[in-house]
Amino acid sequence: MKSFAYVRAGSVQEATEAYAAHPGARYLGGGTNLVDLMKLGVERPAALVDVTRLPLDEVEELPDGGLRIGAMVRNSDLAAHPAVRDRWPALSQALLAGASGQLRNAATTGGNLLQRTRCPYFQDLTKPCNKRVPGSGCGAREGVHRDHAVLGHSAHCIATHPSDMAVALAALDARIELYGPEGARSLPADGFHRLPGDHPERDTEIRPGELITGVLLPAATAGLPSLYRKARDRASYAFALASVAAVLHTGDGVVDRVGIAFGALAHRPWRARKAEEALLGAAPTTAAFEHAVDLELAAAEPLRDNAYKVPLARRLALDVLNRLAPPATP
Ligand SMILES: Cc1cc2nc3c(=O)[nH]c(=O)nc-3n(C[C@H](O)[C@H](O)[C@H](O)COP(=O)(O)OP(=O)(O)OC[C@H]3O[C@@H](n4cnc5c(N)ncnc54)[C@H](O)[C@@H]3O)c2cc1C
Ligand code: SF4
């Protein structure tokens, strides 16, 4: 392993300054993804800026009914937090569907959002990969791509984003809070991760040196019925083949609030805007759910070996929507 400097930051300011002072630095959260990639030689940071001691490990109730989650809050603590379990259950369910108990005890909110794709070619230095080495090619397109994207992929990359938590955050209209050389800003969770396009080496809209400081769950989705479901090869300790997070509320017999996001189908959590548009104002019937989900998944462009993901995602989405608003009529 290449040698690297190590700096433990005591404040957000110290962390961003240390990052700027060491070109090629990486922030270190729980290390459950970054250290693995360093062992494989995929990541070769000049310095690790350890951010685990930053005072960003609290979950704070906001006066307006929202929730601010510090970037260092561990995945297991977040999943178990009473406010998350009661008012944004899809987030708790998504976290518990990810990784293993030991990993969730170490993994942080910020690190989970910035974990890299699990594409095996990305992790193998002997294989071409445009995400790891821009311009080198994509080994997966003609190779093993059973787990890869069916929506929004490009000729340059067909990888999926692996985080379960990010899918729930996208459906729940969360925002990602950042601090960097240009100051503080926030981005919608839906829009934080990118589609690959011509630059698959860029996973997110984060700017160089920016630190994730927290996640904001808005009052607007607090207490609404929400659910997360994930299909995977094993009952635990496996990444999603397809997943769905949804929040759905009905009033006066029609859908008056809806958010749906798919996981493991694209390079980012896939917010199902077409399906949402079709459902808003409609009666929550089986036919309406089917029409909405089919409208969204019509954009799918499956590859040789992953067409199964489309009907799988369809069934998951219909199950979730039916559970959130049991249809009164067929
Ligand atoms: C065997 C295994 C199975 C897994 N299964 C799942 C699964 O089913 N679902 C799932 O969602 N995940 C799964 N994971 C992934 C796991 O959830 C992630 O490794 C973890 O969430 C990453 O968090 P971390 O704090 O350890 O991040 P790190 O490994 O510390 O960091 C990851 C990346 O984020 C950057 N970073 C960290 N914190 C910040 C910050 N605050 N601001 C800016 N940059 C930052 C780092 O520089 C690095 O690039 C699995 C992992 C393993 C090893
Ligand atoms: S799918 Fe993306 S991450 Fe995987 S080999 Fe192709 S370019 Fe690399």
Amino-to-carboxy terminus distance? 60 Å
CATH topology value of one domain = Enolase-like, domain 1
Measured as a percent range, the helix fraction is 25-40%
Name the CATH architecture of one domain: 2-Layer Sandwich
Low-confidence stretches: none
Tell me what portion of residues adopts beta-strand conformation.
15-25%
N-to-C series of helices and strands? EHEHEEEHHHHHHEEEEEEEHHH
Query: Mean pLDDT across all residues, rounded?
Result: 97
- The coarse silhouette is globular
CATH superfamily caption of one domain: CO dehydrogenase flavoprotein, C-terminal domain
What class, by secondary structure content? alpha+beta
Oligomer: single chain
* Gyration radius over CA: 20 Å
Largest sheet features: 5 strands, antiparallel
Please give the count of helices: 11
Give a list of the ligands.
Answer: flavin-adenine dinucleotide, iron/sulfur cluster
Count every beta strand, where a strand is a DSSP E run of 2 or more residues: 12
Highest CATH level, the class of one domain = Alpha Beta
Strand order of the largest sheet: 4-5-8-6-7
